[in-house]
Amino acid sequence: MMIRHWIDLPERSLPPTGECQLWLAWLDEEDPDAWLGYLSEDERLRASRLRSPRSADRFIVGRGILRFILGRYLATRPEALVFEYGPQGKPRLAACWGERLSFNVSHSAGLEVFAIANGFEIGVDIEQVHPVSNLEATASFFLSPEELKELDALPTRRKLERFFELWACKESILKARGYGFASPAKDVLAEFGRLGPEGEWLALLNPAEGFKGALTCLQPHTKE
Fold first, then answer.
1. How many whole angstroms separate alpha carbon 44 and alpha carbon 58?
2. Pairing between strand 211-218 and 83-85?
3. What is the chain written as a DSSP string?
4. What's the average pLDDT block by block, 10 residues per block, for the chain (224 residues)?
């Protein structure tokens, strides 16, 4: 769906059960002051504590757009939404908004992706491809022996892209599970298009030129 600006986004029906929808935004193209009013008091405080003004502006815009999108799905004012947080900080809608709609976000270098799903947990991650000093040493910290072997066999120009693909895959899986990088990344294997050990389905994303990404969907909830 193409829109000129977020304010033109009409109210939307919830995604059908079992479906996930993605939205993209370039944060630096937005005016933070236009979004600040949608944030909660604790979100404003969090923004004020960020050391970099650009990081603060990006947080304000990203959280404001998230609230705006969710508000359109739920037919409510964005500032009225209440979030709760899991043990590793993963946000979710408070129980008063029901348990079917889930969301996850990721941002990198000014680009943010918003994933909204109905009936199951999700994790999304995007990474800007950029030079990594001592790629082999960095990869050995995150990748399994099999993944390192695969990376080593690739042409030099492809190695960096594949590294960030795998990074995004692992982070999206861990975010879907609610673990974050508190769980060892080496133990998380990217199995595309089929159910993994905890019932997750993984797909690669290409959100924009120079970026890699991944989306992980867990099996749908069984509770109505």
1. 12
2. unpaired
3. ---SSGGGPPP-PPPPTT-EEEEEEEGGGS-HHHHGGGS-HHHHHHHHH-SSHHHHHHHHHHHHHHHHHHHHHHTS-GGG--EEE-TT--EEE-GGG-SSEEEEEEEETTEEEEEEEESS-EEEEEEE----TTHHHHHHHHS-HHHHHHHHTS-HHHHHHHHHHHHHHHHHHHHHHT-GGGS-GGG----BTS--TTSEEEEEE--STTEEEEEEEEPPPS--
4. 73 90 95 97 96 97 97 95 88 86 96 95 96 92 91 93 94 86 67 63 93 90 41
d(CA 75, CA 19): 19
**Nearest of 107, 89, 117 to residue 180 by alpha carbon:** 89
3-state secondary structure of 138: helix
Domains and CATH numbers, the chain: 19-118 (3.90.470.20), 125-218 (3.90.470.20)
Pair 218, 200: CB distance under 8 Å: yes
pTM metric for this prediction? 0.91
